Amino acid sequence: MRFPIVRRALLLLALAVPLVATGPAASRSSQPQGWDSDLALPVAADLNPDPHILEINLEARIQDIEILPGKRTAVWSYNGGLPGPLIRLVVGDRLIVHFTNNLPEETTIHWHGLRLPNAMDGAPGVTQPAVAANGGVFTYDFVVPDAGTFWYHPHSNSGAQLSRGLYGPMLVTDPHDPPAFGEDLVLMLSDISLNSEGQINPANEGTYLGDLFGREGNILLVNGKVRPALKVRQGQPQRWRIINAARARFFTLDYGQAPFVKLGGDDGLAAAARRVTAVRIVPGERADVVFIPQDRPGARGVLRWLPTERGPGSTFNRLTEDLMTIETVRERAVRAPRIRSALRTIAPIDTAGARQRDIALTIRQRPDGSMEMGINGVPHDKAPPLVAHVGDTEVWTVRNDTSFAHPFHLHGFFFQVLDPARVPEWKDTAEVPAKTTLRLAVHFDRPGLWMFHCHILDHADAGMMGQIRVLAAGEAPGGGAVAHQGMRGAATTP
Ligand SMILES: [Cu+2]
To answer: What is the reported pTM?
Structure first.
């Protein structure tokens, strides 16, 4: 088990390539004036003087903002912003969030990707009661043990709540990362369904096909904006922390000539950096990439969304869409840095003696013609939790016999993909393309009742979701169960 992974890693390391060098060396502080002014996100005020504790107020509320020029859109927001405030922490910091729900329906916050205590995971009716509408409160309080690009979003009626704007980014940085990676820029990608007056489309219930692929919005958003502009300097690296916060849309980002160096994805750096020609990110997933501008000073380019294959019919009649303008300033170019290919050591999870599980992602047609999704043929509200113990290692074979790709997400734990082979990295969300199988290894080190589901939220809401109860030493199965509400909760859709 050990040797093939190491050999694969070495092979991939050998493929990483140094970058072209011309002119003076780049330094971290020479981004163009106002480079990210169109994209910078607000940060929430820190109420705590301790430098290792970030204590903030977060309010979910409806807010009028301008997305289409001259039109007002009532979005569902955290602290009035689209997206919510950037929560920026250093690995090892403690986060305290005083959350108030001023929405007209109940909600929770799920901290996507974080290895946190189960009680902080934000699954309504599973790890906590849903936070009541019109003034309910809950305090989230945990330490962030890992560097990475994370995000937060509701886990209650989540397809609808996310598509109305409820999501925000979280960056946990490692102060030891080299300056050659460039300055961090969070790019939170999503879409929203608006009519010509800027109102959120109440008929965003999808078509038959829409139900199968999940419902996409008609307006693409980067940090809540339509086609924002980014300023770059030729040769000066920027570290893009890209998050796919869309309810169903898959993103493939294209900028022509392969200027991306992928450092990693969900949960920090991969074992090796590699050049990529396009960045593909499924819902819930993140990409940590260095963008090295290669355009001449004065050039103006467009970062594009490409129609993304995710099953038969998924790219039919789809056109390329513009995401973001990239303006190369008319200032002196700098020499692109060399990014070392070896980034960190990721020891393979020892799977000797691991329990093997089969997790089939399933869709069936009910007698009335409607579609029911599930795990191993059972929708989440009818499925008893799987059971494991703290200290267990498991190998999951996630089988997708359906005709659609599904992004598979496990709460609370990082996993390693064993097959298909790839650069070793820690993941919490991974695509399982149509008619394929993904094998992953996971080690359970904390107790609790944890969700796993497809991150096309329409699919999760339709039942493609399950739970695993990780028992502490001496804990009896079935103890402390909470009635399961799943992602829909008891919420109503206005
Ligand atoms: Cu799915």
So the answer is: 0.91
